[in-house]
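[agent] plan:
  1. take the single chain provided in the ticket
  2. run structure prediction with default settings
  3. attach structure tokens to the ticket
  4. add a short note for the reviewer (M.T.)
[agent] executing step 1
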Amino acid sequence: METVAYLLFWALLFMFMMRFGCGAHVMGHRHHGHHSESGGGSDRLSQPAQAVDPVCGMTVATAGAKSTIFEGRAWYFCSASCRDKFEAAPQQYAKADAAHSTGEPHHAA
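[agent] step 2 finished; step 3 output follows
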């Protein structure tokens, strides 16, 4: 009987933590005040279907792409090699990407 009580205690503690504690987001229960910045009701980040690798210019499917976060933005890459080059000098590639997206001419350094 002591073993059953012991296991029941841990099972209840686990359920309590998953419902109200650190595992609440896994169970789909939201913490109040934590909403996405876009104002929508979803806690998940929106991810485009495709993106352009800022290092080599290749269009990649984001679902299987290598990625990194720089200045609060997700960047997607065709390979770990391109991601490593970006992470070595992110300002260079982010600046080139911003110039390309605003229609300004792109000059390689």
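[agent] step 4 note for reviewer: The two ends are 74 Å apart (CA to CA).
[agent] ticket updated
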